[in-house]
Task: inverse folding
């Protein structure tokens, strides 16, 4: 039986026009480059579909989507990381979800001066099953311009180049061996749901979690 496409939870800023369009462009490029192996789920696409639109309902809908996905891509751009993205990354690690930390921001910040430091707070580094991908977006941009490209052709090549590196990092993250034994997965996901609180136990019942775990193990995530 052919394996299904793995679902990517795309975590990151979604607050302005550059965020929204940039997320969409990169998501489309990743799916194209992966040739059907990955399907990108953008939290921004569901923002207007959340009932009641309270802070809790939006938060819980994002958490539900996160745990329903197979792998995480977290955008770690900016001098200060987006706090919501960091929380989502932490819960992804609680269930040992394969993850790629993507930084296209060429500026240094955080603990980059340490020998093994990344350009963000050290508490967000050194987790199992996680690939760190630093891409200098300015270099990519000018490489595309130096090819004589402009407008839409430049944008397409720019995102295609970034997507190629992201897909390679995703493949490496997914290929790792999880430290969670399959018989422990149900309990681990139920624990994550309890820690999230709110309406999560209603959204993800034991039966739904069991179905998710079976689907993920069948897809080779664990």
Result:
């Amino acid at each position: 039986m052919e394996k299904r496409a793995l679902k990517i939870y795309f975590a990151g800023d979604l607050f302005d026009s550059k965020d929204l369009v940039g997320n969409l462009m990169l998501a489309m490029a990743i799916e194209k480059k992966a040739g059907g192996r990955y399907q990108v789920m953008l939290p921004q696409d569901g923002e207007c579909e959340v009932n009641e639109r309270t802070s809790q309902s939006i938060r819980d809908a994002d958490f539900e989507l996160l745990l329903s996905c197979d792998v995480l891509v977290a955008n770690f751009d900016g001098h200060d990381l987006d706090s919501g993205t960091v929380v989502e990354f932490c819960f992804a690690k609680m269930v040992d979800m394969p993850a790629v930390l993507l930084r296209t921001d060429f500026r240094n910040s955080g603990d980059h001066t340490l020998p093994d430091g990344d350009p963000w707070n050290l508490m967000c580094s050194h987790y199992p099953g996680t690939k760190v991908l630093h891409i200098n977006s300015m270099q990519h941009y000018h490489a595309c311009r130096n090819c004589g490209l402009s407008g839409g052709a430049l944008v397409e090549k720019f995102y295609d180049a970034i997507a190629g590196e992201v897909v390679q990092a995703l493949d490496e993250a997914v290929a790792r061996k999880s430290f969670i034994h399959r018989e422990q997965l149900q309990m681990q996901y139920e624990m994550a749901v309890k820690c999230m609180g709110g309406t999560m136990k209603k959204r993800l019942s034991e039966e739904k979690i069991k179905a998710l775990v079976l689907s993920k193990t069948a897809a080779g995530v664990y």
About this structure: The mean pLDDT is 93.
